[in-house]
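Sequence design from tokenized structure. All designs in this work follow the same two-part layout: the structure record, then the generated sequence. An example of the structure record is given first.
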């Protein structure tokens, strides 16, 4: 067995271990439970799971999906998540280094050499994104929510990896092959202004100057007709929301971000002294990576949030969730502003495919939109270079 085969097996096992922890995240995070304490235990009898019964894949198979102590069934989801995560990390390694679908520009003749030559950071960053998407999709399918803390954690990983990429991989390679998001001086100025506007919006929200949307404390008494589509039951039998009014609150939150981005762009284009200083500063490797990732985050959030607001104003009921907004923002921190927009428009095709399957099978099962967004992001990650060439040809043409 060659060293590369051994390394591929280790990559798969590493992914399975990540999947074991991912099962903890999927179960505990949306239920506001600690991810560390208490140790894993059987939901039926409460007995702590021994370390030798917590080996990814093998333990579930050996125990035949049952608790060692009480014989209660252990959901097959645990095995599926561990296997899927292992395959995701292994598949990512294969498509990046063994049968590369992207031109990485890294030194080395073999997969392991390219991996150790800086490619490990790209593999690790995209692995974190895919793992986060898997967790978000699993939670969304079960509970119809995407925890914002999960999205923020993914976003932080994206921003840190893009900021530090220039210290691991030559910046000319990063820029030339678009391995991590970077920015032009003009877009970086708009991004910086948008970030300042976001900080202002958060301060105004926390101090109560901007009201929170869908705040239970402001929900109206439930006195609506069954046919009234301008309200959504909050989960409590005695409250309801005026969705169009809630959308106006969200517009108020987004206004400082939009105005900040416009102001940053205008400063760059109309103030020559600022532009000269900004060009040198914004193109420093760490700054360019940070602003490129942050710009992807803002655009990812913006394209979904804009759709959410327009859909809510048009139809009088909540269109898409804030979890979807932050999930696309998190992916944008890895993919950059252009590709995250492409991913957003790719997602509906998976929704249409699901609808076609239901029509053929004559079974109706409504599922949330988060998994479709995740599939759109995955598609863009795999077809990145081909999509870039196609979009560039349209732009040049």
């Amino acid at each position: 067995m060659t060293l590369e085969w051994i390394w591929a097996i280790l990559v798969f096992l590493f992914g399975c271990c990540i999947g074991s922890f991912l099962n903890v995240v999927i179960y505990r995070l949306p239920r506001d439970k600690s991810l560390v304490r208490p140790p894993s235990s059987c939901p039926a009898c409460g007995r702590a799971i021994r370390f030798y019964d917590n080996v990814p894949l093998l333990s579930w198979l050996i125990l035949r999906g049952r608790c060692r102590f009480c014989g209660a069934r252990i959901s097959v989801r645990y095995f599926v998540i561990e296997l899927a995560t292992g395959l995701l990390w292994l598949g990512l390694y294969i498509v990046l280094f063994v049968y590369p679908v992207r031109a990485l520009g890294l030194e080395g003749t073999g997969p392991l050499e390219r991996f150790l030559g800086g490619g490990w950071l790209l593999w690790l960053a995209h692995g974190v994104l895919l793992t986060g998407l898997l967790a978000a999709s699993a939670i969304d399918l079960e509970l119809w929510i995407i925890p914002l803390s999960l999205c923020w954690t993914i976003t932080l990983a994206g921003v840190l990896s893009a900021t530090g990429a220039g210290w691991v991989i030559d910046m000319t390679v990063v820029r030339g092959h678009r391995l991590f998001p970077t920015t032009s001086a003009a877009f970086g100025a708009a991004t910086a202004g948008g970030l300042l506007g976001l900080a202002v919006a958060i301060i105004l929200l926390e101090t109560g100057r901007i009201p929170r949307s869908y705040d239970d404390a402001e929900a109206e008494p439930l006195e609506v007709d069954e046919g009234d589509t301008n309200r959504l039951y909050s989960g409590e039998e005695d409250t309801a929301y005026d969705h169009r009014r809630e959308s106006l609150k969200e517009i108020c939150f987004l206004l400082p971000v939009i105005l900040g981005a416009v102001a940053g762009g205008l400063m760059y284009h109309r103030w020559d002294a600022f532009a000269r200083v900004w060009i040198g500063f914004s193109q420093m490797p760490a700054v360019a990576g940070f602003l490129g990732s942050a710009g992807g985050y803002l655009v990812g959030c913006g394209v979904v949030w804009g759709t959410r607001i327009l859909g809510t104003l048009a139809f009088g009921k909540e269109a898409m969730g804030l979890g979807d907004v932050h999930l696309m923002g998190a992916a944008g921190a890895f993919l950059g502003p252009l590709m995250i927009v492409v991913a957003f428009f790719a997602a509906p095709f998976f929704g249409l495919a699901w609808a076609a399957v239901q029509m053929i099978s004559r079974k109706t099962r409504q599922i949330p939109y988060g998994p479709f967004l995740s599939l759109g992001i995955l598609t863009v990650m795999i077809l990145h270079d081909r999509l870039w060439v196609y979009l560039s040809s349209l732009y040049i043409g």
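The beta strands are 220-221, 231-233, 239-242. We note this feature because it recurs in several other targets discussed in the main text.
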